[in-house]
Write a structure and sequence with these properties.
This is Leucine-rich repeat domain-containing protein. It comes from Chryseobacterium formosus. InterPro entries: LRR_dom_sf. This protein has one domain: Leucine-rich repeat, LRR (right-handed beta-alpha superhelix). The N and C termini lie far apart (49 Å). Strand 3, helix 4 and strand 4 form a beta-alpha-beta unit. By secondary structure, it is α/β, with parallel strands linked by helices. Helix 5 packs parallel to helix 6. The radius of gyration is 18 Å and the shape is elongated.
């Protein structure tokens, strides 16, 4: 078995502070889920996490401090299938380029961010995506035009507007735009 390289001083502080881990060989290489809401998780947090974690399947990150750089660090997580980034106010359209590189990504929630439907129409081309949740205050004609663009780019994906789940609190299905 190959021993992981020792911690740098900064890494050691990170792992001790957040997870009470003292040695690099105590970090599991694969995690199923990372969940954080209303937190101070920032780009540096995901930088250090991405140095040691090989696989992370689900990220639920609501209202944190990450920017597009934090999303870029998430590219290091193999098998990332679900990315919930609701209310991360520092994300911009630059993140869409990183979403395209996430080969296993099936669900993307970017409601409450600055990323728009137009941004997705311009850049998004990830064929593995099956569900996208995004906010839009555009009128019906504008949405219809963008729907056609997205449908031609990622035909097997359902796009939901102004909701965060495929069903409401009563389990009534929300209707995707396509």
């Amino acid at each position: 078995m190959i021993k992981p390289p020792k911690f740098t001083k900064e890494e050691q502080k990170f792992w001790q502070r957040h997870y009470r881990i003292e040695k690099a060989d105590r970090i599991p290489a694969e995690w199923y889920r990372f969940h954080s809401a209303d937190s101070d998780c920032d780009d540096e947090f995901f930088y250090f996490l991405s140095l040691r974690l090989l696989s992370l399947e689900n990220i639920y990150l609501k209202d944190s401090q990450i920017t597009d750089l934090g999303v870029k660090y998430m590219l290091n997580f193999k098998n990332l299938q679900s990315l919930f980034l609701r209310k991360n106010r520092f994300l911009t359209s630059e993140s869409v380029l990183y979403f395209n590189q996430m080969e296993n990504l099936k669900m993307l929630n970017i409601t409450g961010t600055a990323i728009t439907l137009a941004d997705l129409c311009e850049c998004l081309d990830n064929q593995s995506l099956r569900e996208i949740f995004i906010d839009s205050d555009e009128n019906e004609d504008e949405i219809s035009a963008k729907e056609n663009i997205l449908k031609s780019r990622i035909p097997n994906c359902k796009v939901y507007l102004n909701c965060s789940n495929p069903s409401d609190v009563f389990d009534v299905p929300n209707k995707p735009i396509y």
